[in-house]
Structures are given as structure tokens and as C-alpha cells.
Amino acid sequence: MQVQASFQEHPTGTLYLVPTPIGNLDDMTFRAIKVLKEAELICAEDTRHTRQLLNHFAIETKAISFHEHNTEQRIPELINRLKQGATLAQCSDAGMPSISDPGKELVAACIEAGIAVVPLPGANAALTALIASGLCPQPFYFYGFLERKHQQQVTELEQLKNRRETMIFYEAPHRLAKTLASMVEVFGKDRPAVLARELTKRYEEFARGSLDELLSWAKEGVRGEFVVMVAGNDHPTEEDAPTGSPLEQIKAAIEGGQSPNVAIKQVAKRLGLNRQELYRQYHQL
Ligand code: SAM
User: Fold this and answer.
1) Torsion of CA 220, 146, 229, 91, to 10 degrees
2) Which of 95, 196, 235, 279 is 20 to 30 A (C-alpha) from 31?
3) Does the reported pTM lie above 0.70?
4) Is the CB of 92 under 6 A from ligand 1?
């Protein structure tokens, strides 16, 4: 067992994990700027990219590259500096380091060496998307990127199809339609889902609907960065299939965290009922 008191005097240095904006520079926190200014060295995924951010906030600290291709080679030298008392900051190109980004190996090496690892809160695409999705915010299951090849993707999705949690994926715009097609194939066309595009940026957009509707939308051609969120499976096995009257099923889904509109839509689809009529009945309760 190991206990880290983050803000006690340490015989060694400290590694700060610093989130950076996912689009809007105003999302940089005061603390993140302070930590980057005061660090001895910044370990950045792409130094040219991070330099623009540093220039914007008049941060003059030296930055070195730390990415998936030089992680192994960099870690011993960074641990050495930390052992000698250096304060280092690690950041990625956008959002939280280590979340679908470089960082986890350095964190593990610091913990192994008894060096304090101090995280800063800040921008993250998954959670930013989730809180405005309208899908049940918890429990949620963050998956990150799926495999790129269709068959591997389908195998991964098969393992996820009975999960009850809202699932969160990252995907590149040019692969979005193919990934949604795989999701339709495995999760079914009616599963509610949400696409969050260009979060915090000028063209931020949320597309909410069934997987099938979102696939048609994506096929028209989409640009920008996306978070894909898919509702959990609310009846993974036949025994789990909801019972009771349509209104009881709606109430149960709402109690389970679903929004009334999504619950009404799901129940209408499941039971083959008219959505408007069900909506009217629900609001007459
Ligand atoms: N570390 C980042 C975080 O904390 O969110 C994630 C980095 S990952 C390499 C990049 C992926 O995150 C993109 O492909 C996209 O799926 C998602 N993403 C990043 N910025 C986004 C934004 N502004 N809007 C929507 N999705 C975004």
C-alpha cells in the first residue's frame, strides 16, 4: 500500500498532470497556467502545438516532446529529474492527459518510484459531451477509440452490447459513418445515441436520435471532432425485458435515469405504440 499526500513537502519533485483546452482557449484554468509557468519543464505531446498555447498565455517554460513513440526512452530521464526534486508538468494536445492520450506509463513509473503525481481538473471531451447529451449520465462507461477494422470493431461492440451503462466513444470524423454502421449492426438501429461535435468551438453541435438516424446524418458528410454516446441496453436479456403497462415502463425508465422524452420514445418503439399518444397519456398523469 502507498499513500500520497499531494501537498506535503516531498523529498522528490512532483509530476503535475495538466489538462489543456479541447477547442476554446478560455477553458484553460488559472491553476493550469500557474502550474505550467512554475514547472521546470513541460512534457508535451506535440511541442509545436503546445507552444501556441504557451505563447497565448505568456508561459515561457521549456517544453520537450513526450508522445507514444518516445515514452519508453523519455521515462528514465524524467524520473531521474523528478528524483532530483524537479517539478514537471505533462500535457497532451487537448483535454486530459492519459485519456486516449499519452501519459499513463509516466504516471505508473512515478508511482513506482514514490514520486507524487498531482492531477489538475480541466477540459475533457467525454464528460463535456455526456452532461449535455440527455442520456443517463451515470453509470457511464468510457471506452475511447474502437478498433479501426470492421471485424475487430464488431467483436468489441459485441462485448459491449449488453452493457447497461451509457457508453462513450471517441472517433475521427472520416471513420464516424463506418463506426455508426457497425453500431447499428450490433446494437440495433433503434438504440438511442448522441453525437457531440466540435465541443466548445464555434460550430458545436449535438445530434440526438436513434443510431440509424445518426448514421443517415453522418453519411451526408460530417466534419470536426466527435464524441459518440450510446444509451445502455435497458433489457439485455429476455427475462430483463420491461413488463407492466406502457406508462409503468416509462416511469421505470425515468427512475432509471432516462429523460421523459427518450423513455417515451423507447417504450413506443418497443411496444409498437404511437409516440404522440403515449406522450399525451404521460403528460396527463
Ligand atoms: N485527451 C482528450 C480528452 O480528455 O478528451 C482526448 C484526446 S483523443 C486523442 C481525441 C478525440 O477526443 C477526438 O478524436 C474526439 O473523439 C474527442 N474530442 C477531442 N476534442 C473534441 C471536441 N472539441 N469535440 C468533440 N470531440 C472531441
Assistant:
1) -110
2) 196
3) yes
4) yes
